[in-house]
Amino acid sequence: MASARPSGEETLIARYFKPLASDPGAFDLVDDAAILKTVGEDVVVTTDVVVTTDAVVEGVHFLKDDPPDTIARKALRTNLSDLAAKGAAPVGFVLTLALRDADEAWLGPFALALGEDAKAFGCPLLGGDTVSTPGPLMISITAFGRVPAGKMVRRSGAKPGDRLVVTGTIGDAALGLDILKVGPLATALADDAAGQEMLIARYRVPQPRNALAKAVCDHASAAMDVSDGLAGDLAKLCAASGVSAAIDLSSIPLSAAGRKLLASGAVSIETIVSGGDDYEILCAISDDCYERFAHEAMQAGIAVTTIGTVIAGTADPRFLDAQGRELSLHRRSYSHF
Amino acid sequence: MASARPSGEETLIARYFKPLASDPGAFDLVDDAAILKTVGEDVVVTTDVVVTTDAVVEGVHFLKDDPPDTIARKALRTNLSDLAAKGAAPVGFVLTLALRDADEAWLGPFALALGEDAKAFGCPLLGGDTVSTPGPLMISITAFGRVPAGKMVRRSGAKPGDRLVVTGTIGDAALGLDILKVGPLATALADDAAGQEMLIARYRVPQPRNALAKAVCDHASAAMDVSDGLAGDLAKLCAASGVSAAIDLSSIPLSAAGRKLLASGAVSIETIVSGGDDYEILCAISDDCYERFAHEAMQAGIAVTTIGTVIAGTADPRFLDAQGRELSLHRRSYSHF
Question: Domains of chain A by range and CATH?
Answer without folding.
Answer: 8-148 (3.30.1330.10), 163-320 (3.90.650.10)
